[in-house]
Amino acid sequence: MLEAGINLVYIRDFLGYTSTTTEIYARASEKLKEQALEKLTSGIIQKSKTTW
Fold it and tell me: Quick count: other Cβ atoms within 10 Å of Cβ 8?
C-alpha cells in the first residue's frame, strides 16, 4: 500500500493501529527513496561523473 502511494496514516487506520507501530515497521523501497530524493534535490545534484 505504501508503494501504491497511500498515506501511512491511512494504512495505520486500515490496519487498526492506534499508536506509531506502523511507522516503526514500515519500510520504503529503494525506488521510493530515490523518488523522494529526486523531489528534494531537483536541480541540485547533477547526474554526471565527477572529475576527481
Answer: 14
